[in-house]
Amino acid sequence: MASESAARSRWVALGVIASSMLVIVLDGSIVTVAMPAIQEDLGFSATGLSWVVNAYLIAFGALLLLAGRLGDLLGRRRMFAAGTALFTGASLLAGLATSPGLLVAARFAQGVGSAMASSVALGILVTLFTEPRERGRAIAVFSFTGATGAAIGQVLGGVLTDALSWHWNFFINVPLGVAVLLLTRRHLPDDTGLGLRAGADAAGAVLVTGGLLLGSYAVVNVERHGGTSAHTLGAGLVGLALLAGFLLRQATARTPLMPLRMLRPRAVWAANLIQVLLVGAMFSFQVMFALHLQNVLGYGAAETGLAMLPAAVAIGAVSLGLAARLNARFGEPAMLLVGLAMLTTLLVLLSRLPDDAAYATDLLPLLLLGAGFGLAQPALTTFGMSAARSEDAGLASGLFNTTQQVGMALGIAVLSTAAAARTEGLLGEGAERAEALAAGYRLAFGIGAALLGVALVVAVAALARRRPGATPTPQRERERESRRAGAVPAGL
């Protein structure tokens, strides 16, 4: 009975974590649909409106790694609850905003709260579920939450904006956030953390946060200032210099914020690299495909969300219903390769899409290939968290979430800039606007397919030779480190 009660408690805790992530993912997609209404109501300028998104992205991307490590040091449940509380309060403030400045400030605070909660979510998950089969199922549920949240957000954002007002796109987070907070206190396991002395590297914290802050700022402003402008290059180069300084600092600090041994396992660095490429391609696909439906085919906001719903349903069905069993049967490497191949095929075919594509015959069959994300992401998450120990699970979670955010920012910056340049070039040659836009979006899909092709190469080179069940575990990594240090004879 005790074991059954413990198992039930773990799955309830997973439900709490997934619910929090659902709220955060909902917010990310629900806001984009309401942007025109926000601009009209609050009087945002065309350039100022982008900061409704950018303020959130900069705060979120800059703080994930630091928040994950602080969760290990101060307690992951404490960090999760504090982040959820901040996000909920900031959502209320955003809904009440009556000026552009107040809304941007609230969005920045939302980003901070999201980083605090998201950074430790996977860390809590992998410490709750230590048995491989159970962990696979838990990661599949977690991946399902992200896929469905994005789709629901697009549909719900259009409905709320049209039926009520854009304010409700933020107000809806408040009751959901309060419910998560109440459940967190009751169902998430309490952990005291290691204490600040175990990793209180103030200099490292300043370097990594500053580097990620400037890097995020440079990337999200590429479309405004240009990728080769002094503004973009200056911020980007200083950010890279700070991150390089952070890595050097971690190699010499007595209590490093991020022990570099975390990057040593091949599965970990390969998974994080693949994630940058995968998320960069697929997040850009989501944005560009929505723009194609609206600007080329004339769909409305709610229609666009509904049109993209089948892809999310397919992703959710695969990640929740099949991914864990297929991973256990054939191994994570095989499922990762199959998923990446399906997604690459999707973007290659979209890059050849006709201007007058019909939804039922041209688009819907392709969207079902999005189910490949439901195969790839759970396998990738397993690799990314495979070497996480109980004492640094929050850091591993923060790192994996950071590369996800980097992929989103870089992908949309590169692909949207390429699409815009292609469109402007064709307009200058006298092409019709819809024709020029469609050509720009097709170019973006083609670049996304190339990114996924690189991800496939990395997966084959670094991960494909692993046998089913051969994913490294924290115990295996500790044994390897001990042998390297001479503490454990090689034959034992």
Write the topology of this structure.
Blueprint: H1 2-42, H2 46-49, H3 51-74, H4 76-96, H5 100-128, H6 132-163, H7 168-171, H8 173-187, H9 202-220, H10 222-225, H11 230-252, H12 266-295, H13 301-321, H14 323-330, H15 332-350, H16 359-367, H17 371-384, H18 393-428, H19 433-462, H20 474-485
Helix pairs in contact: 1-5, 1-6, 1-8, 3-4, 3-5, 3-9, 3-18, 4-5, 4-8, 5-18, 6-13, 6-14, 6-17, 9-11, 12-13, 12-17, 12-18, 12-19, 13-17, 14-15, 15-17, 15-19, 18-19
Briefly note the CATH topology name of the largest domain.
Growth Hormone, Chain: A
Which sequence of SSEs, written as H and E, runs from N to C? Answer: HHHHHHHHHHHHHHHHHHHH
Q: Supply the number of structural domains.
A: 3
Radius of gyration (Å) = 22 Å
How many helix segments? 20
User: How much of the residues is beta strand, in percent?
Assistant: under 5%
